[in-house]
Amino acid sequence: MSELTRRMALRAGLLAVPALAAPPLVAKVGAQQAFDWQRFKGEKVEASLTSNPRSSLLIQHQREFEELTGIKVGAEQIPEQQHRQKFAIEFASGRPSFDVVGISLHVSKRQVGRAKWCADIKPLIQDASMTAPDFDFGDFGAGSVTYSTQADGRMDTLPEFTDYFIMYYNKELLAAKNIAVPKTFDELYIAAKALTDPAKQQYGFVGRGLRNANVVLWSSFLLGTAQRDTVSADMKLLTDTPDAVWATQMYQKMMRECAPPGSVGFNWNECQTTFMQGRAAFWIDGVGFAAPLEDKTRSRIAGKVGYAVSPAGPANHHCCLFGTAFGISEQSRRRGAAWYYLQWASGKANQLRYLTSGAGAPARSSPFSNEEAISTSRFPREFFTTLAESARIARPGLPEIVPVTEFRDTLGTAITNTIGGADPATELKRATDAFRPVLEQSERAT
Amino acid sequence: MANGATALPGGTATAVAAPRRRNYARRYGWFIVPAGVVVLAVILFPWAFTLFMSAHEWKIGGGHHFVGLDNYRKLFTDERFLWSVARTFYFTALAVVLPMIFGVAAAMVFSRNFPLRGLARTIFILPMMATPVAVALVWTMMFHPQLGVLNWLLTQFGIPPSMWIYDARTVIPTLVMVEVWHWTPLVMLIVLGGLASLPIDPYEAAKIDGASPWQSFRHITWPLLLPFIVVALIIRTIDALKAFDTIYVITQGGPGTSSETINIFLYLQGFAYYNMGYASAVVVVFFLLIVSLAALLLWTRNRVKDAA
């Protein structure tokens, strides 16, 4: 893989073309006068990040930020689930130990927004003395900006990473049976069924079956229906409707008839192992797996992996969208330095690094148009085009509610049960009845 | 002159001070203050606060208000909680009985002299030294239904592959298998210590009287060893009841909720759903369960001691 050099990073900044429309505040970030990267020299910011390849990249390159600004960074990485608990408890204590926090928008957005734990960054973006002239807010995809904006209009996080559910496939297995890449879920089922051969321990499909983790795969099917969402605009649960039943039946067929035995307990790591050992033809999951799949020392299918957008459903064509972003603690006494860190962390150079290292899809648009970086990447062009196409059709894969984890657990248990043969309609009804009071109580508290 | 009074030069009489009892509590009482503060801070206050929270609807990031005993009422009608209690007892029963049987048997073997006994003992207690989370991660890889080494081994012997943790019917016995592997050495060590402390005289007398090895075990070893076995039983029971790390890392309570024990349920309520009030009620109920069970075991131990 070609390492991203300083030169490339600089060029990324110069060549970047804002691809998507940005909110009107962009216009105000035009003429800058007194911005100075050294303004908060000598301060120290604490960043609490989730453990993932992107945080590792930021920590690896944070010296670059320290040299640029004179601000010291104390960054820690904590596994995702534990990190969510840690920041929630620290925020609730009223004295968080960090200035900057990484947040999974698909899980914590509503919780963070409701409690007003993070500062609104819009005024900072609009302040010419606080925002670098080349920050280029318009470079962030409109979807990412919307995702980072709360219902009350406050933008309390800056987008970092967007995760689309894409379809990985084993080119060799498809070619052996002369099967084309499916465009719809019905075609996917037919192809996966044809490629399933338990005697050879070869399966047409692998996907998440573990409670909670499986809801995002199930959402991929639901997004293809006319209904698309799990919660209506007026916050009513839509998880036992005919469309939800269709999505569950599709999930059940794929997992029972085309997936390896034991998938009921598979999370992404078991799926990844199965797929990279060449035991499964199709896998629908997040974008972050290209790096291990293309690693010749670990993967038996390196160089044989195909990438495609998630197939279309009977009424719509979307892929699940998840995302992470950086927020500044409302309690932070180093808000200025923290904002500088955010500008650097979600800056063009780091965003390009995310893309070229396979760490994930950046929230900015410019990396996708960086021809030099893409052409020298170790990933095939198909990977980048899949990401760009996914960005076009992406839609949140989880509802924006506070009790997201409880929603995933309750619905996930029902979906898992269908893999064992339970009736989808009955299971969905039970899960919906169990979760409805939780959602209603949560909404009353809002 | 009255008792206790003496004449002083000058003619005045004063009472002779009776030997005063030293009030140690008054003079040295403040020495216990540091310990008292620690107990207050790390035991009593958390307990009082847990009880306080359990009487509130308390959500991290949200408000909290008093609900009295509602959380407790809700618990006893919450099917998921009741199932988690049943699963906890099922898991505990297996995870106590099996290591006890294997541990006592292993102690009997290792109490005898045989070549390389020291090495064999060391190897036997190795699992106990491993970090539970690391152990759990290794077992998870071994349980993989298609790529795990366990199914490969089974197929080498012509046995059909198992679904291990990936099937609701086999998940608890499989988790117990990990517990047995991990904690049988602890039981063995406790029992082995007991065996080493047994007197030789009764055995010599029994030998002179012509007792068989079984009779020696049944009438000498077993009664003398019983207090040690009860200690191992109490430690194992408490360990099994509070098992969390292994289960969480291997299954996270799944598939579905089929391995969701009280601890997993409690963790999810508190740290995944942030229902601190409800989670506190679970803690209180779980604490009472453990205390009752421990009291029962201690009572049994005393009975055994008296009988011995």
Short description:
The complex is a heterodimer of chains A (446) and B (308). Chain A has 446 residues and is an alpha/beta fold.
3D structure, described in words:
The complex is a heterodimer of chains A (446) and B (308). Helices cover 44% and strands 14% of the residues of chain A. By secondary structure, chain A is an alpha/beta fold. In chain A, the strands form two sheets. In chain A, strands 1, 2, 3, 4, 9, 10 and 11 form a seven-stranded mixed β-sheet that branches. In chain A, strands 6-7-5-8 form a four-stranded mixed β-sheet, sandwiched between helices. Chain A is globular and about 65 Å long. Chain B is mostly helical. Chain B has 13 helices and four strands. In chain B, α2 packs across α13 (276-307), α4 packs antiparallel against α10 and α4 crosses α12. Chain B is flat and about 75 Å long. Chain A binds chain B through residues 81, 85, 88-89, 91-92, 111-112, 114-115, 117, 201, 209-212, 260-266, 270, 273-274, 277, 279, 402-403, 405-406, 409, 413, 416-417, 420, 445, and chain B through 59-63, 144-147, 163-168, 171, 251-257, 268, 271-274.
Largest sheet of chain A: 7 strands, mixed
Q: Give the CA-based shape of chain A.
A: globular
Poorly predicted regions of chain A are: 9-32
State the largest interface. A-B, 38 and 28 residues
Secondary-structure content class of chain A: alpha/beta
Q: Mean pLDDT across all residues of chain B, rounded?
A: 89
Q: What structural class is derived from the secondary structure elements of chain B? A: mainly alpha
Shape of chain B: flat
Oligomer: heterodimer
Give a count of the beta strands of chain B, DSSP E runs of length 2 or more: 4
Number of helices, where a helix is a run of at least 4 consecutive DSSP H or I residues of chain A = 19
User: How many H/I helical runs of chain B?
Assistant: 13
Mind describing the biggest β-sheet of chain B? 2 strands, antiparallel
Give the strand content of chain B. under 5%
Query: Cα-atom Rg of chain B, whole angstroms?
Result: 29 Å
Whole-number radius of gyration of chain A? 22 Å
Into which percent range does the helicity of residues of chain A fall?
40-55%
